[in-house]
Amino acid sequence: MLHDDLQRSTKRNHALDVDQQILIALRFYATGNFQQVIGDTLGVDKSTVSRVVQNVTDALLKWTDDVISWPTEDNKRRVQEGFHSLGGFPGVIGCIDGTHVRIQAPTQDESAYVNRKGYHSINVQAVCDHEGINICINSQTLTFLTH
């Protein structure tokens, strides 16, 4: 899906292939570690991590119309029944929670990323269904809905 957007035609010896780029971005999304830490762990420069995360995010966003959809009535009914059977909760179609993912201070609008506890972060909200499957992840920088 992302190959055409991430493939680089270069003759450089150490160009990152598509799989490496996706894995770097997934590591960043999943852990929220500083880009420097991810770079050190994976043997790439912090600026490479930053560029890769931006490129992978942009490539993913191009697919939003193809992969994002509102739940069907059947799916809503299935999830409601699942929550009802788990805990007796009627009419529930998702559980929501949020967290702050620590980030390195950005160079632009730095103060906008300081949270109430005084450190730089991105506020992330997630919604899951009765099986614990993420159906929506939303942050200040990207949003994923699944079906």
3D architecture notes:
This protein is of the alpha+beta class. It has 2 domains: 3-64; 68-145, no CATH class. It has helices at residues 3-6, 18-31, 35-42, 46-61, 64-67, 73-87, and strands at residues 95-102, 121-128, 134-139, 143-145. It has a 4-stranded antiparallel sheet, with no helix packed on it. Helix 3 packs across helix 4. The two termini are 17 Å apart.
Topology, please?
Layout: H1 3-6, H2 18-31, H3 35-42, H4 46-61, H5 64-67, H6 73-87, E1 95-102, E2 121-128, E3 134-139, E4 143-145
Antiparallel strand pairs: 1-2, 2-3, 3-4
Helix pairs in contact: 2-4, 3-4
Give the strand line-up of the largest sheet: 1-2-3-4
What is the element string, with H for helices and E for strands? HHHHHHEEEE
- Domain count: the total is 2
SS field, number of helical segments: 6
Question: Which regions are unreliable across 5 or more consecutive residues at pLDDT < 50?
Answer: none
Overall shape: it is globular
What kind of sheet is the major sheet?
A: 4 strands, antiparallel
Beta-strand content: 15-25%
Helix proportion of residues, in percent? 40-55%
Average pLDDT, to the nearest integer?
Answer: 85
Number of β-strand runs? 4
* Rg from alpha-carbon coordinates: 18 Å
Structural class: alpha+beta
Query: What's the end-to-end separation, in Å?
Result: 17 Å
Briefly say what this structure is.
The chain has helices spanning 3-6, 18-31, 35-42, 46-61, 64-67, 73-87; strands at 95-102, 121-128, 134-139, 143-145.
